Amino acid sequence: xxxxxxxxxxxxxxxxxxxxxxxxxxxxxxxxxxxxxxxxxxxxxxxxxxxxxxxxxxxxxxxxxxxxxxxxxxxxxxxxxxxxxxxxxxxxxxxxxxxxxxxxxxxxxxxxxxxxxxxxxxxxxxxxxxxxxxxxxxxxxxxxxxxxxxxxxxxxxxxxxxxxxxxxxxxxxxxxxxxxxxxxxxxxxxxxxxxxxxxxxxxxxxxxxxxxxxxxxxxxxxxxxxxxxxxxxxxxxxxxxxxxxxxxxxxxxxxxxxxxxxxxxxxxxxxxxxxxxxxxxxxxxxxxxxxxxxxxxxxxxxxxxxxxxxxxxxxxxxxxxxxxxxxxxxxxxxxxxxxxxxxxxxxxxxxxxxxxxxxxxxxxxxxxxxxxxxxxxxxxxxxxxxxxx
Length: 389
Hints:
The chain is α+β, with helices and mostly antiparallel strands. The protein has 2 domains: 6-163, tt1808, chain A (Alpha-Beta Complex), CATH 3.90.1570; 169-388, no CATH class. It contains 18 helices and 9 strands. The chain has helices at residues 10-27, 31-49, 91-108, 149-160, 169-176, 181-196, 200-217, 225-231, 241-267, 274-284, 286-297, 300-304, 313-316, 325-338, 345-348, 350-362, 367-373, 376-388; strands at 57-60, 64-67, 77-82, 119-124, 128-135, 138-141, 145-146, 165-166, 341-342. The strands form 2 sheets. Strands 1, 2, 3, 4, 5, 6 and 7 form a 7-stranded mixed beta sheet that branches. Strands 8-9 form a two-stranded parallel ribbon. Helix 1 packs across helix 4 and helix 6 (181-196) packs across helix 9. The radius of gyration is 24 Å and the shape is elongated.
């Protein structure tokens, strides 16, 4: 099955790096000694998580400036402003440090407020840490808190985000939409699993979905014929277009649930990353992977925060009853593509992300087929947001 992805170690890295920063802070006589140690740890992190040739540029001056190369990344630059150990215990020193890092970001952004959001500021004295960002047209600086595994994890995430995409509708549609390589790989796999199914439960779920689907949009199978040509399924054979639509709906529901769960986990780090757990389970065994996905389909982190029946989950967990190597590969194709995205996007622009989810779901099938299905998608979106909000 190959080696586990190195990003699965990030929690362990946060614990190890946090401990070493604290140890350094106890011995350091000034901010320069702290800075030298932190910079060496950052270099270790970059070597571990970035491919050769894709490493961010790091400027070592009074502060550490780490600039990524991806134009589609959420953050373009992470800036660490150092203070001598224990300096952040004093309120006036924190205010001074905050003003310094904001002034520096302003210079780096050429004085243009529209560029401020691409910077992630960090103030660190080895014992305490604060994060500074530009959100909703104003600077937001967290009060200094004791350096912890969680806060170090957030710092490491910001650095790693330099190689990850912002959650953007255009990027998501390119990677997961009806014209994407991912959808054209995974949807035929799901369709074939449906066609070969001998499970009475899968048959029952399909019949029930078909009944509800037909009531909502009053479709006829002829309206779905465009799907067959688009996805190129079962060439040379007769295609059940209703099963194909069920496979399409299953695919996008899984993408949405995985993405939404990952976004929610960013605000609830105690639950951990669902994508990380799924990928880790995949490296252990197929049974562990199925159990992790079953938890997702039964609500997972979404249920834990009180949202029930998100995206009509009971209809679309059928693929777990059709467990095979092809289904596993299809699911993991989605998971690994989603790993390219940075859930911190929602912290930066939550309103834009809400519109993004709606746009993604509206584009769940090729345009010519979507036009024929009319009111179905409007009703589906209303149900989606009623459950999420």
